[in-house]
Amino acid sequence: ILKDDHEHLFKKQIKKMLNSKIDMIITSGAVSAGKFDFVPSVINSFKLSNYFKGVAIRPGKPVLFAKIQGKQKVIFGLPGNPISSAACFRFFVHPFLMNSLGASPEKPIKAILKNSFQKKKDFTRFIKSKITTTQNGKLELEVLQGQESFRIRSFVNSNIWAVFPSGKSNFKKGDLVDCFYPNFSNSNLI
Questions:
Q1: Domain boundaries, the chain
Q2: Beta partners for 142?
Q3: Region 129-134: what's the mean pLDDT?
Q4: Among 134, 126, 135, which Cα is nearest to 178's?
Q5: Which residues pair with 162 in a beta bridge?
Q6: Which of 81, 96, 98, 172 is the most exposed place for a label (fewest CB within 10 A)?
């Protein structure tokens, strides 16, 4: 754990890890655009073959990915907010790891929306939700209250991530929604 003003120490540690046998570096925090968010500038100081920072998602918009040029090493910079970090791990790091292991791409579970939901059209939203099975065996999805990324109680009470894609704002009761379990691959269940 490094303090916010330890950019030089962070760079030294990243350089050390890049010269070791590890394949992946995952950081948490200091990836946004604030005064102490030094991770992007440090990562950009290395020779990169691939790089992105900032994705049209919520939570987790400032997520960072970099592949080091000439090495089989990647870096994920996750946001410091715990819910944003959890979402980015689930939807970026986990699929990357599964792909690296040769696993087939994960397919979403489809569930019927129990309550309507609205969001901004421009972003994909990863929503803390609860999935249950109805008496007739259908999967039903409830969007939980407290979707702000700093709200931990709704995360603790959830058992599934619901994915509401960009390009649409209003989702009605009865709509089918793509869902992903938080701690493991859907493919383990199907």
A1: 7-100, 109-188
A2: 130
A3: 96
A4: 126
A5: 127, 179
A6: 172
CATH superfamily membership of 7-100: MoaB/Mog-like domain (3.40.980.10)
Average pLDDT, the chain: 92
Pair 129, 179: CB distance under 8 Å: yes
Place of tokens 């440090």: 42
- Encoding tokens for residue 113? 């929306």
Per-residue pLDDT, 189: 46
DSSP 35-92: TT--HHHHHHTS-EEEEEE--SEES-TT-EEEEETTSS-EEEEE-SSHHHHHHHIIII
Closest CA to 78 of 59, 93, 63, 56: 63
Q: How many CB atoms lie within 10 A of CB 90?
A: 18
Answer for the pair 106, 178: CB distance below 8 angstroms, yes or no. no
C-alpha pair distances (Å), 80 with each of 89, 134, 142: 12, 37, 27
**Residue 96 burial by Cβ neighbours in a 10 Å radius (0-12, 13-18, 19+):** middle
Domain 109-188, CATH: 2.40.340.10
Q: pLDDT at position 135, please? A: 94
Distance of alpha carbon 32 from alpha carbon 167, whole angstroms? 24
Give tens-digit pLDDT for 85-100.
Answer: 999 999 999 999 999 9
